[in-house]
UniProtKB/TrEMBL annotation:
InterPro entries hit by this protein: HARBI1_dom (IPR027806), THAP_Znf (IPR006612), THAP_Znf_sf (IPR038441), Transposase_HTH_dom (IPR027805)
Domain THAP-type span(s) in chain numbering: 1-79
Keyword Repressor assigned: no
Single Gene Ontology MF annotation: zinc ion binding
Taxonomic source organism: Parnassius mnemosyne
Keyword flag Electron transport: no
Lineage start: Eukaryota, Metazoa, Ecdysozoa, Arthropoda, Hexapoda
The entry's keywords: DNA-binding, Metal-binding, Zinc, Zinc-finger
Name the UniProt record assigns to this protein: THAP-type domain-containing protein
Cofactor(s) the protein needs: a divalent metal cation
């Protein structure tokens, strides 16, 4: 970064010279630098401006801004030949305490401190000071909570005792379940590589809350920014970063259960009629905004939904655990093509059975591995099916309907039912996987 243009000042420059020629000349005259003409890279540091030169409260949120912006028409006025920047211990102490309060507001609590009692308070002692400070005695600052945006309407701490709000905004049943989800992402979530700049004004719990609210309610970034007292850019930065992070962490978990576990948790109705069922599969489609590219329009257009979509396959055990989520493909892809690109043939064991809809006519793919496909029978030129086969197909449909309920539960996250913007379409596979994993934290798929 270029240094400050004021003679004798070695601080990094922050504020660019204004583009207005009249105001620019005033700045050049104020710094008293002989024959100096400011370029597009010339800057001044903050030490040459007064506090009153900066914008106070934000016009959008009504709260003090985190980043400092100069008011229109401001001219630098603090120089070595005019007013000296105060270096007294009192002013240093004041500046230090301002920095300390910001650090205390956004400090990350440990696992033991993440669920404090409502009446408890944490005593934090300031014992280290940046730079030499004369005649300054460290003081103890009491902080009642270390999570939650300082200026926001909504926060995790505000919803702690309200399970209805937790369920409405996140899809999880209660605060303890939310903390369980957060624990599965700890401690890695404390050292994230953000897509944009590092987020320091929102605690980790609220960042996860913002992500789950975006998935569950699909609120616009502006609405989330207003509720949490942050900028829209920060909301987008948090959501994209956490979706990638949650996918990378949860994809390391082997959600494909062993055959013994599937048999152990299999309902009695399955054991009587379809004892070898390993997984129930079906496809689902997520609507997207119509692409501008004609080729992309053709690839993503679904003849079933009559709109542009991305399509994926979800599989669940008879006990209700989502055990397989495929990548998302263009809406024009067939069920058979998704099966051919999936890893199911290598994941199932000999003698297993896959329960599916009539569109999964893929017996030839699995026959070599001794894996059967349970699908309703085709007419094959007949006017009607035998009565015995109709009864069997009805039993099959009553069991296969479980996957419809599970997909319906996943689509309670409205981001999977609303049109994905072009900004989120590249993340469709990861968004679907995260929503499916969030459903696995639920107590049951039905009341």
């Amino acid at each position: 970064m270029p240094l400050c243009a004021v003679p004798g000042c070695a601080n990094p420059g922050v504020h660019l010279f204004p583009k207005d020629p009249t105001l620019k000349k005033k700045w050049e005259k104020a710094i008293r630098r002989k024959n100096f003409v400011a370029t597009q890279h010339s800057r001044l540091c903050r030490n040459h401006f007064q506090e009153s030169d900066y914008v106070g409260e934000s016009a959008y949120t009504g709260h003090p801004q985190i980043c400092k912006f100069l008011k229109k028409g401001t001219v630098p006025s603090i120089f070595p030949w005019s007013t000296q920047v105060s270096t007294t211990p009192t002013s240093r102490t004041s500046r230090y305490m301002k920095r300390s309060r910001r650090i205390l507001d956004f400090i990350q609590p440990s696992v033991e401190e993440s669920v404090p009692e409502p009446s408890s308070s944490a005593e934090i002692e300031i014992s280290t000071i940046e730079g030499p400070i004369e005649d300054f005695t460290p003081k103890t600052v009491s902080v009642s909570t270390q999570c939650g945006s300082s200026f926001g309407i909504l926060s995790l701490e505000a919803m702690r005792g309200n399970p209805q709000a937790i369920h409405f905004y996140t899809g999880l049943e209660k605060y303890e379940k939310f903390m369980l989800v957060l624990d599965t992402l700890s401690p890695m979530c404390n050292n994230l590589n953000y897509r944009g700049s590092k987020v320091i004004n929102v605690c980790i719990g609220d960042q996860l809350l913002i992500t789950l609210i975006k998935l569950r309610r699909y609120m616009p970034d502006f609405e989330l920014a207003f509720l949490f007292g942050i900028s829209q850019t920060t909301v987008a930065n948090i959501f994209v970063t956490w979706i990638n992070f949650m996918y990378e962490i949860w994809s390391l978990i082997n959600i494909w259960p062993s055959k013994e576990l599937v048999q152990y948790y299999m309902p009695e109705s399955f054991k009587r009629g379809f004892p070898n069922t390993r997984i129930i599969v079906d496809t689902t489609e997520i609507p997207i905004t119509r692409p501008g590219n004609p080729v992309a329009q053709q690839v993503t257009f679904s003849s079933y939904k009559h709109q542009n979509t991305v399509k994926a396959m979800i599989g669940a055990t008879p006990g209700g655990l989502i055990s397989y989520v495929s990548e998302c493909y263009g809406g024009s892809v067939s069920d058979r093509q998704i099966i051919e690109r999936s890893k199911l043939i290598n994941m199932c064991d000999s003698g297993d059975s896959i329960m599916a809809d009539r569109g999964f006519n893929v017996q030839d793919i699995f026959a070599s591995r001794d894996i059967t496909i349970n699908i309703p029978m085709f007419l094959k030129g007949k006017t009607q099916l035998p009565g015995v086969r109709i009864i069997q197909d009805r039993k099959l449909a009553s069991k296969r309907f479980h996957i419809e309920r599970i997909i319906g539960l996943a689509k309670s996250y409205k981001i999977l039912k609303s049109e994905l913007s072009p900004y989120y379409v590249p993340l469709a596979s990861r968004i679907l996987f995260v929503c499916a994993m969030a459903c696995n934290f639920r107590e049951s798929i039905m009341k």
